[in-house]
Each structure stands twice: as structure tokens, then as C-alpha cells.
Design goal:
Length: about 475
């Protein structure tokens, strides 16, 4: 028997929602649409649902708008059935229903992020802790203390102890044997990096070593180091080392393939900084590609840096990518439709509503508050007096009937039209009263209603009333 769904909506969205669900309906979809007495669906709240809905009306699950505010466990407990958020825009419902009406699970991943503090010797312990706290909040699993050639690190042991005290796992990254030994004796969880010629370090400390070739590209020496530690029963991670573009990237990728083919069951690390740091391109796409390679090869450890100013969000981007790619791989699916957060500049479906559809909605408006939306044709502003369209806010503003001297209203409309123009120019989703969404490229002030502390919600859009005169029923 098909699961029965109850879709809650508002007056303006009800006709469109019924059309979309009607087009999606099949023998497996049984549903009811209920307007709970709010004009704009996006203004719905969990408290309002609990207050206005007496029962589930025979539904097995209640679907509410994606922008519905509040704790949905409150109405769920009252109704006795699950209450879940749908997509932020009802035009995305077919994909949502194609997953059984369940948001993708982005809580799982199998790639551990090593975030390197490359200038650790030059930072005091408090500075190291501050950087580690930021990396940890962004998704890092291990804090890597990068040692610098010729720069003393007298407080290495103190830094390791302080990081452990604050709940971090720690790795020490050095090519100097003495620093690796100091790090291992101080209790570092991992040591980066041991070679065939320095394997004796692994016999003196309990840290898990990361093995690299004796010389760049020397996969044979890496193989001998792997065989030696495997024979001793020691855990290790192997890294054949990723090279930058035009300096051996393609061949280094081939070495990772060969390493995985030769040793199907070992733990492997890839350091992606040589691509993200040394390429003048937005890092989100670069990281998504590199993690796609890692996902295929089952490489489960990643070392990254945030040195270049343009790479300042790579830990967040990698955290987002590892969750999306894990979910797609588990589903044996392309990494599409899981999370659009890494499409920071351009979206696959930036304009869900056509100009004619927005005009239909505008015709139903009966109050003076301005609504703003964006289609491929431009920026649309409308209220009960009609709709006007342009691609430049300066062309729109003289046409708006703003009250003389009403500075707050003018400021509000200026902000919204500026956002709308950026959305139209780049091809991004625009939602009135909401900041444009840039995914992990921008540090969120608060992560709300996500599957995990670091997962990002897909972007969407909903037609909403203007903030200035909005009243929540």
C-alpha cells in the first residue's frame, strides 16, 4: 500500500503545488494538499502547524515547505507522524519525491580530513589552538602541525599536548627525522612523512606513519616501505604524492591508480593542496573533482592546506564534497541532485519560474507590499498594482511607488534588488528576504536544520512577502 503524504502549503502556492503533484502522481504517490490558512507558504512555522493542525488527516507523513521555521519535532509529537521539510522550492518536488520524499543523507563520509597548519613553528600555542578550532569547526578530523625547514619548533611537544587536551587528533608533518621522533614521543597520532630510508622512526614511536616515495615518482621505493611495515604488522597510510598541473599531475594520478591496484586493501592518503593552492581557479570545483577521484579509488585520507587567500574555504568545501560523494557512491549514482552547495557561482536550475508563471502569481496579489523574483528574463517586482521587469535595479527603482521619505523601505528594496541583480547575472537562486547562498565558500554564522554540523542545505527559492509589511498569521 502506498504511503500517504500530507503537503502543507499557503494560499498563493496551493494551485502551483497541486499542478506539480498532479504531474508527478503515480500509483506509488497518495497525497492531500492542505492550505493551513497562511498566505505565503514560506511564512509557515512549526509552532503554527502544531497550533492549527489537529491531526494527520490519515497521512503517514507530513511534508512542509523547505523554508518552514522552527523545530518540527513539536508538530510531529502532536500529530504522531513524521513531519519533514521538503525542498525550498516546490519546483524541486519531483526530485524530492523521486527519493521517496526523504532528503539525501549527508551525515556519512569515509574520507578523513588532515588540515595542515603550515606555519605552526611561527605560531604560539594559543595561535595554534585558534587555527585548529577553526579547522575543526569546518570539518577537519586531524590537525596537522607543519614543520618548516630550518625553523626551530621548541614548543612542538606543548602544542601536541594542548591540541589533545582540546579534543583534536594530531599529526606532525616534517622531513626531519628528529622532529618526527619528537612528535611521536609526544604522542602525535600520525607522522608525515616516512620514507624507505627513515622507517626506523616507526620502530621507536607508536604514531601511525604516512609513507611517501624516497624520491618524487619513485613508486618502487614506496612499495618496499609498504611491504616492510606490512610484514611487521604495523598500521600505516601510503601517499604516492599528487603533483601540480604541468608538473606531473596526470602521471601522479596514474600512480594513485597503480598504488590502489597493487595494494587493494591499504589505507591511502592524497594531498590536494598542490592543485587547490597552485591553480588560479575557484577551489570548490577543483576539490569536488579531486574528491571524486578519491571516492573512486577508495582513498580515505586527505591532506589539505589553506595558505593562498583564494583557498581559504577548502576545508569546508572538502567536508561538503566528501558527504555528497559518499551518498552518491552508496547509491551507485552520479553526484547530482544530492547537494548543490558546491555550485557557488552558477546553479543547474537557477530560475525555476518563468516570466509568465511569475506574472500569474503577481496577478493574485492584493496588498501593496512588493515581492521580488528573478527569471531568465530579468528581475520582477510586483504588488497589487502590477508587475515591472528590468535587468538593472536603477531601471526598476523609478517605477516603484515608494513613500516619500520612507528611508527604511527604500533601503530594504535597494538591498533586495541588488541581490536579485547578482542572482540574475550569475544564474543563482534568489529568495526574497534571504541572503544569496554561496555554499561552503562563505562561513555560515549558524548551521540550521542540516543533516550534520558541516553539511550544507541545497539552495532553493520561494516567493515571499516583503519583510517591511510582513505579518505572520
Amino acid at each position: 500500500m502506498a504511503e500517504r503524504l500530507l503537503f502543507l502549503t499557503g494560499k498563493l502556492a496551493e494551485p502551483g503545488l497541486c499542478r506539480i503533484l498532479g504531474a508527478s502522481q503515480g500509483p506509488e504517490l497518495s497525497y492531500e494538499v492542505l492550505n493551513i490558512g497562511v498566505s505565503v507558504a514560506a511564512l509557515m512555522s512549526a509552532e503554527m502547524i502544531a497550533r492549527r493542525l489537529d491531526g494527520p488527516r490519515g497521512a503517514d507523513r507530513v511534508i512542509v515547505p523547505g523554508l518552514c521555521a522552527g523545530d518540527l519535532t513539536v508538530p510531529a509529537e502532536k500529530l504522531g507522524v513524521p513531519v519533514v521539510r521538503g525542498p525550498e522550492d516546490m519546483k524541486d518536488l519531483p526530485g524530492f519525491l523521486g527519493r521517496g520524499g526523504v532528503p539525501p543523507d549527508l551525515s556519512r563520509y569515509d574520507i578523513r580530513i588532515f588540515a595542515e597548519i603550515v606555519d605552526a613553528p611561527r605560531l604560539c600555542v594559543e595561535g595554534i589552538l585558534d587555527r585548529a578550532a577553526r579547522y575543526g569547526a569546518d570539518g577537519a578530523d586531524v590537525i596537522d602541525l607543519g614543520c618548516l625547514p630550518g625553523v626551530p619548533f621548541p614548543h612542538l611537544e606543548e602544542a601536541i599536548a594542548a591540541l589533545h587536551e582540546h579534543g583534536h587528533r594530531v599529526s606532525v608533518d616534517s622531513l626531519v627525522t628528529e622532529e618526527l621522533l619528537r612528535g611521536g614521543r609526544a604522542g602525535a597520532d600520525h607522522l608525515l612523512s616516512l620514507k624507505e630510508s627513515t622507517l626506523a622512526v616507526a620502530d621507536e614511536v607508536g604514531s601511525i606513519p604516512v609513507l611517501i616515495p624516497e624520491e618524487p615518482g619513485d613508486l618502487a621505493s614506496l612499495g618496499r616501505a609498504i611491504d616492510a611495515l606490512a610484514a611487521r604488522g604495523r598500521p600505516f597510510i601510503a601517499d604516492s604524492v599528487l603533483d601540480p598541473i604541468h608538473f606531473g599531475l596526470s602521471r601522479s594520478l596514474a600512480r594513485y591508480v597503480e598504488l590502489r591496484d597493487r595494494y587493494p586493501g591499504i589505507e591511502i592518503m592524497m594531498g590536494t593542496g598542490n592543485v587547490s593552492e597552485l591553480t588560479d581557479a575557484d577551489t570548490a570545483g577543483l576539490n569536488a573533482f579531486m574528491l571524486g577521484v578519491m571516492s573512486e579509488l577508495r582513498i580515505t585520507h586527505l591532506l589539505t592546506t589553506e595558505v593562498s587567500p583564494h583557498a581559504r574555504s577548502v576545508v569546508r568545501e572538502i567536508d561538503c564534497a566528501r558527504r555528497m560523494l559518499f551518498a552518491a557512491r552508496e547509491d551507485r549514482s552520479l553526484p547530482r541532485g544530492y547537494d548543490a552547495s558546491l555550485c557557488a557561482l552558477h546553479e543547474r536550475k537557477p530560475f525555476p519560474y518563468s516570466e509568465s508563471e511569475i506574472a500569474e502569481i503577481a496577478a493574485e496579489i492584493r496588498d501593496p507590499s512588493y515581492r521580488v523574483n528573478v527569471s531568465a528574463a530579468g528581475i520582477h517586482v510586483y504588488n497589487r498594482d502590477g508587475m515591472t521587469t528590468a535587468t538593472d535595479p536603477f531601471d526598476l527603482f523609478p517605477r516603484l511607488d515608494l513613500l516619500q521619505g520612507d528611508a527604511p523601505h527604500a533601503f530594504y528594496m535597494g538591498v533586495e534588488l541588488g541581490r536579485a541583480q547578482i542572482a540574475w547575472q550569475l544564474g543563482k537562486r534568489y529568495v526574497q528576504d534571504e541572503p544569496l547562498k554561496w555554499g561552503p565558500a562563505v562561513r555560515p554564522a549558524v548551521s540550521e536544520d542540516t543533516a550534520s554540523p558541516h553539511a550544507y542545505k541545497p539552495e532553493g527559492t520561494t516567493l515571499r512577502a516583503g519583510r517591511r509589511k510582513r505579518e505572520v498569521p
